[in-house]
Write a structure and sequence with these properties.
Number of domains: 5
InterPro entries: DEAD-box_helicase_OB_fold, DEAD/DEAH_box_helicase_dom, DNA/RNA_helicase_DEAH_CS, HA2_WH, Helicase-assoc_dom, Helicase_ATP-bd, Helicase_C-like, P-loop_NTPase
Distance between the termini: 50 Å
Strand order of the largest sheet: 5-4-6-3-7-8-2-9
EC number: 3.6.4.13
Strand content: 15-25%
CATH topology of the largest domain: Rossmann fold
CATH architecture of the largest domain: 3-Layer(aba) Sandwich
Structural class: alpha/beta
Bound molecules: adenosine-5'-triphosphate
Radius of gyration: 26 Å
Shape: globular
Number of strands: 22
Pfam families: DEAD, HA2_C, Helicase_C, OB_NTP_bind, WHD_HA2
Protein name: RNA helicase
Number of helices: 24
Domain Helicase ATP-binding: 57-222
Length: 694
């Protein structure tokens, strides 16, 4: 039976892995970071992928699809787009695209490549992520972008005609957008034989990728005259990795990975030479808890540590701190979610601490609930995490799980996101690109028919598709054009008739961020008090409106935000997203109108989009339990909501997070009679009436 490490009793003890502790090797010697072009050029030439330059260019020239397999740190992301540019693939106004599953990776890889090429970011090298476009229509030749943004670009340019080569990076991650993209790119290739695809993937996935791109008979060989690229994919394996990363495992399983991570950090700081530490935990709550524990360290082993969080909703200024050089004599500790798992190079990082878990989406089509659940990572993820050390010098990785668990129990790859997600956004995207037979679409990994049917049902109820499952005009086309979750887009459309588009656009902008509150260490009480100053009886959405109004009345002042525990950078982002959404709304013919204080209009607009997330409080519940109307699932209001402990009878939630319970985040009160009005097919009156009288 496994032994468990008890927090506070002893520290986790590590053993090196049996292969001599060496996961990665290189012939290159350690180097410090390069400043100036010459040293950057030397660094480029040391990367394993450099030796394959000619082979890569030959394969891209002669094959429609090239799958490049290589270890993390071999230089695929930063070098291949440059090789292509140097070889002329971006001449005559053409462009090279490189997609990433994560926004942070897009930004950081683009700035690295810009630096290596000695050009200003946004000119020859640029990037686009949702709501942020740092490219120049005339100048940009290499463009980094999220796979989701490339999918959006297809709405205006279905054949992606401005790109000569599209590199889909980190394809093994099997993100939802990557899988949709791969299916669509395969289709585009038939219409544009001159388009070249490069799929960069970890070893295990390469064969299935090749099989996918090879799976159509029509794709084999060259054209009738023997011209053009070969249509069956080429696979190139890039041998060689970054620097040595010595891996250790705990001897016995740990029962509390946050405490184990903190004592590992302190022990590295105590015993190991200088070098930054990157710690992988699962989410902001974990990160806050670990930061708190580090701050409380009574033995003062934390002296000289600069502790920084890293997660997807973090404001840009805080993100920049993570990438900034570590002051002399100090050691940075970056505590991150899995957003730092792939494609990132954090120059100072020598040590990686991996808790072995991440937050993952799981959608249940029966209950129609998509949860973010803390679940074990795969071996592929663990290797990616270890690969964040050893990028510019040798490193060490401390895994907070046993080697036995890593070898025998951890799954080799995770389940593709498409098989564990709500598919509403995915279906509308395909529909808007004219793909009507969703069930027959050529997916790299098939989604479950139940999830597809659920998505079609919700889209039908939203009025996005008609009886023939085609996009409705104008509603369906309008919703597809707004770069937001279709439910949020529907809420914006509904606000037109309800005369509250200004308010609803503000709410949509706030919901597009993770949080607008500033939750510093030990300031939970002050944050709760600040929230009370804005709290609205109608719920969180209306509270956001109060905050935004206050922000505008303060002349968008940073000190006002500071005083009220509101994140100033988040508010600036809200303003920015708001401006973009207002422009889109105007283009779609939505009148920009304010309803002033008529919050019923706002609540009805939210209901129009989110009717499928309606819940009713349990009649005899003393602990604030709710039941979802559609799936009869037990859910609770999240403690961060202004309606926590208020427990109004009928509510609608924006999303669910699962910890020990299923918690509703961002909750608003509604009248039950609005549900059948908003979605008559979804809610029949008969279904609701008995509950109304209970
Ligand atoms: N910002 C940076 N500062 C210093 N060196 C960097 C930076 N970005 C990349 N490098 C160097 O380039 C190497 C290759 O990075 P690149 O992202 O191209 O690798 P990769 O093969 O795509 O790996 P991954 O799949 O992990 O992203 C890094 O290991 C590092 O040595």
């Amino acid at each position: 039976m496994s032994k468990f490490w008890k927090p506070g009793t002893e520290k986790p003890r590590f053993v090196e892995d049996e292969e001599g502790g060496v996961l990665f090797y290189t012939s290159a010697s350690s180097s410090s970071s390069g400043h100036g072009y010459a040293s950057v050029e030397r660094q480029r030439q040391r990367l394993p992928v450099f030796k394959y330059r000619t082979a890569i260019l030959y394969l891209v020239e002669t094959h429609a699809t090239t799958i490049v397999v290589g270890e993390t740190g071999s230089g695929k992301t930063t070098q291949i787009p440059q090789f292509l540019k140097e070889a002329g693939w971006a001449d005559s106004g053409r462009m090279i695209a490189c997609t990433q599953p994560r926004r942070l990776a897009v930004q950081s890889v683009a700035s690295r490549v810009g630096e290596e090429m000695g050009v200003k970011l946004g000119e020859e090298v640029g990037y686009t992520i949702r709501f942020e476009d740092i490219t120049d229509a005339e100048l940009t030749r290499i463009k980094f972008l999220t796979d989701g943004v490339l999918l959006r670009e297809m709405m205006d340019d279905p054949l992606l005609s401005k790109y000569s080569v599209i590199m889909v990076d980190e394809a093994h991650e099997r993100s939802l957008s990557t899988d949709i993209l791969l299916g669509l790119l395969k289709k585009i290739q038939r219409r544009r034989p001159e388009l070249r695809l490069i799929i960069s993937s970890a070893t295990i996935e390469a064969k299935s990728m090749a099989a996918f791109f090879n799976s159509s008979r029509r794709l084999q060989g060259r054209d009738a005259e023997g011209h053009g690229p070969r249509k069956e994919p080429a696979i190139l394996s890039v041998e060689g990795r970054g620097f040595n990363v010595q891996t250790s495992y705990v001897e016995d399983p740990v029962s509390d990975y946050i405490r184990a991570a903190v004592s590992t950090i302190l022990s590295i700081h105590d015993k190991e030479p200088m070098g930054d530490i990157l710690v992988f935990l699962t989410g902001k709550d974990d990160i806050d808890a670990a930061m708190q524990l580090l701050a409380e360290d009574s033995h003062h082993k934390n002296q000289g540590l600069i502790v920084l969080p890293l997660y997807s909703g973090l404001p840009r200024a805080d993100q920049d701190l993570v990438f900034s050089p570590t002051p002399r004599g100090k050691r940075k500790v970056i505590i991150s979610t899995n957003i730092a798992e792939t494609s990132l190079t954090l120059e100072g990082v020598v040590y990686v601490v991996d808790c072995g878990f991440s937050k993952q989406r799981f959608y249940n089509p029966i209950t129609d609930i998509e949860n973010l659940v803390v679940a074990p990572i795969s071996r592929a993820s663990a290797r990616q995490r270890a690969g964040r050390a050893g990028r510019v010098r040798p490193g060490k990785c401390y895994r907070l799980y046993t080697e036995e668990y890593y070898v025998n129990e951890m799954s080799s790859d995770g389940v593709p996101e498409i098989q564990r997600s709500n598919l509403v956004s995915c279906v509308i995207q395909l529909k808007s690109l004219g793909i009507d037979n969703i069930l027959g679409f050529d997916w790299p990994a098939s989604p479950s028919p139940e999830a597809l049917i659920r998505a079609l049902e919700v889209l039908y109820s939203l009025g996005v598709i008609d009886d023939d499952a085609k996009l409705t005009s104008p509603t369906g086309f309008q919703i597809a054009e707004i770069p937001l979750d279709p439910m949020v887009s529907k809420m914006i459309l509904a606000s037109n008739d309800l005369g509250c588009s200004e308010e609803v656009i503000t709410i949509a902008a706030v919901l597009s961020l993770q949080s607008i509150w500033y939750s510093g260490r030990g300031s939970e009480k002050e944050l709760d008090e600040a929230k009370l100053r804005f709290a609205a009886a109608e719920g969180d959405h209306v509270t956001f409106l109060n905050v935004y109004r206050g922000y505008v009345e303060s002349n968008k002042s940073s000190s006002w935000c500071h005083r009220n525990h509101i994140n100033y950078h988040a508010m600036k982002k809200v303003d920015d997203v708001r401006k973009q959404l207002r422009r889109i709304a105007q283009r779609l013919g939505i009148a920009l109108k304010s309803c002033d204080h008529d919050m019923q209009a706002v609540r009805k607009a939210v209901t129009a989009g989110f009717f499928s997330n309606a819940c009713r409080v349990e009649a005899f519940s003393h602990n604030g339990a709710y039941k979802t109307i559609r799936g009869s699932q037990e859910v609770y209001i999240h403690p961060s909501s202004v309606l926590f402990r208020v427990n109004p009878k009928w509510v609608i939630y924006h999303s669910i997070v699962s910890t020990e319970r299923q918690y509703m985040r961002n909750v608003i009160t509604i009248e039950p009679s609005w549900l059948p009005e908003a979605a008559p097919h979804f809610y029949h009156r008969q279904q609701l009436d008995p509950r109304l009288h209970s």
